[in-house]
Design brief:
Chain C: Fe(3+) binds at residues 123, 126-128. Chain C: Residues 35-212 form the Nitrile hydratase alpha/Thiocyanate hydrolase gamma domain. Chain C: Belongs to the nitrile hydratase subunit alpha family. The complex is a heterotrimer. Chain A is mostly beta strands. Chain A has helices at 44-47, 65-69, and strands at residues 9-12, 31-42, 55-64, 79-85, 89-91. Helix content of chain A is 9%, strand content 38%. Chain B is globular and about 45 Å long. Chain B is mainly alpha-helical. Classes of the chains: A mainly beta, B mainly alpha, C alpha/beta. Chains in contact: A-B, A-C, B-C.
C-alpha cells in the first residue's frame, strides 16, 4: 500500500460496496491533499462485523468544495476535511 | 447522508431521559467488555435503513443496535430476550415502575 | 434559535433541568417497546455478570459531569497561555489531561478559528462528537438536516445559527468520519484584554466549540 506524506495529492477510490464503510459516499472519486498523517487504527470495516481487524493508516485529507460539489457550489474555495483509511486512497496527479 | 437535500436544522433541544442515559451507558459498558465496538453499533444502525431513521428516536435506534450486537456476540439469546421483555411488560404500565426506579 | 442560550444557574425553574431545558417525561408515561427493551437488555447484562447496576449508575454520573464548561476552560487557558495553546493544537488530548479532564482513549484534534479561517464540525456518518470533554451532543447536531447540509452549504447552515461570514473568511468543514474527534478553538473576542481566565471561559459556549457560533463579547 502506498504511504502518503502531508501535501500529497490523493484520490478517494470510487468503490461502492454495500455495508459499513467510514469513507463518506460523497467523497468517493474525489481528489484532495493529505492534510496530516494520523496513527494506525484497526480496520473499522472488519470491526463492524466482529472480525479480526488489521491496523490501517488513517489520513486527514482536505478537499476543496469545488472538487466535491462542482464549481457552482456555495463557495468553491471553502474546504472540507475528512479522515480516510489508506486502502481507500490512491495517488493522484497534479491538475 | 452527507450532501443530500434537507430542510432547516431543527432547533429543538432537550435533556436526556433516564432511559436514554441508560442506553448510552450500556453502549459504553458493553463495548468496554469487548462484545462489540462502535463500528458494530454503526453497522447495525445503518442496516436499519431509512425508515428507522424517520420513525425511531436516536436512543431507540441505539438500543436496537446494541441489542443486535449483543445477540450476535452470544451474550444472550433471542429467547432469553423475548422472555425478559415479556416479564418487564407484565410488571407495570410505566417506565419508572417497570424499571423499579 | 435556542442554541447556546445563556442559562441562569442561580435560579431553579420549575420543571427545568440544571441546564435549563425541560425534563423529558419518561417515568410516568406508557412503557414503550424500546424502553422495555432497554430494561430487558440491562437486566440480562446484570444477570449474566457483564455489568452491575452500580456501573450503569456511575457511567451516567460520569457523563452528566461532562459539559461544555470543561471545553470552555480549555479554550480560556489557550487564550491566555501560548504554550498551552501550542500543546492544544498539537495534542489536544494531552492538553485536556493537563487541565484534569480525562478524555479517555478519544483522539481529539483542536482546530483554530482566526480572522481568516472559520472551522465547523459535523459527523455525516453518525454523530461523532467530543463527548468525553463536552458531554452529549445537542439534538440538532444529530439531525439529518445538520449532517446532510453542513458539508455542502456550511454558510447557509451557519446563517441559520445567526452567524454570517464574509467572503474573506474561508470556511473549513471537518467531517468527523473515523477515529478523530474535533473541537474548535474559537477566536478570542476583542475587548477581553483585562479579563481573568474564568471570565474568559464564561464567554465560550458550546456552539463556539462546534463552530456553529463564536465566543461572546463581554
Amino acid at each position: 500500500m502506498v504511504e502518503f506524506t502531508p501535501g500529497a495529492r490523493v484520490r478517494v477510490r470510487a468503490l461502492m460496496p454495500p455495508g459499513h464503510i467510514r469513507t463518506p459516499a460523497y467523497l468517493r472519486g474525489k481528489t484532495g491533499v493529505v492534510e496530516r498523517v494520523l496513527k494506525e487504527y484497526a480496520n473499522p470495516e472488519q470491526l463492524a462485523y466482529r472480525l479480526p481487524a488489521a491496523p490501517l493508516r488513517l489520513y486527514r485529507v482536505r478537499f476543496e468544495m469545488a472538487e466535491v460539489w462542482g464549481a457552482g457550489c456555495e463557495t468553491p474555495s471553502d474546504t472540507l476535511d475528512a479522515e480516510i483509511y489508506a486502502p481507500w486512497l490512491e495517488p493522484a496527479h497534479a491538475p | 447522508m452527507g450532501g443530500t437535500p434537507a430542510g432547516p436544522v431543527p432547533d429543538a433541544s432537550h435533556d436526556f431521559a433516564l432511559w436514554e442515559k441508560r442506553v448510552d451507558a450500556l453502549m459504553i459498558l458493553a463495548s468496554a467488555r469487548g462484545h462489540f465496538t462502535v463500528d458494530g453499533l454503526r453497522r447495525a444502525l445503518e442496516d436499519m435503513g431509512e425508515a428507522a431513521f424517520e420513525e425511531m428516536s436516536y436512543y431507540e435506534r441505539w438500543i436496537a443496535a446494541i441489542n443486535q450486537n449483543l445477540v450476535e456476540a452470544g451474550v444472550y439469546s433471542l429467547a432469553e430476550l423475548g422472555e425478559k421483555m415479556e416479564e418487564v411488560r407484565a410488571r407495570a404500565e410505566t417506565y419508572g415502575e417497570a424499571a423499579g426506579g | 434559535m435556542p442554541h447556546d442560550h445563556p442559562h441562569d444557574h442561580d435560579h431553579d425553574h420549575d420543571g427545568m433541568s440544571p441546564s435549563g431545558h425541560p425534563y423529558r417525561k419518561d417515568q410516568d408515561t406508557g412503557l414503550s417497546y424500546w424502553q422495555c427493551m432497554e430494561i430487558a437488555v440491562r437486566e440480562l447484562l446484570i444477570e449474566k455478570g457483564e455489568v452491575s447496576a452500580q456501573e450503569v449508575a456511575r457511567q451516567i454520573d460520569v457523563m452528566d459531569s461532562r459539559s461544555p464548561a470543561n471545553g470552555a476552560a480549555v479554550v480560556a487557558r489557550a487564550w491566555v497561555d501560548p504554550g498551552f495553546k501550542a500543546l492544544l493544537l498539537k495534542d489536544a488530548g494531552a492538553a485536556c489531561g493537563e487541565m484534569g479532564f480525562d478524555i479517555g482513549p478519544l483522539q481529539l484534534i483542536a482546530v483554530e478559528n482566526t480572522a481568516q479561517v472559520h472551522n465547523v464540525i459535523v459527523c455525516t456518518l453518525c454523530s461523532c462528537y467530543p463527548r468525553n470533554l463536552l458531554g452529549l451532543p445537542p439534538d440538532w447536531y444529530k439531525s439529518r438536516a445538520y449532517r446532510a447540509r453542513t458539508v455542502r452549504e456550511p454558510r447557509a447552515v451557519l446563517a441559520e445559527f445567526g452567524l454570517t461570514l464574509g467572503e474573506d473568511v474561508q470556511v473549513r468543514v471537518h467531517d468527523s468520519t473515523a477515529d478523530m474527534r474535533y473541537i474548535v478553538l474559537p477566536a478570542r473576542p476583542e475587548g477581553t484584554e483585562g479579563l481573568s481566565e474564568a471570565e474568559l471561559a464564561a464567554l465560550v459556549g458550546r456552539d463556539s466549540m462546534i463552530g456553529t457560533g463564536v465566543a461572546r463579547r463581554p
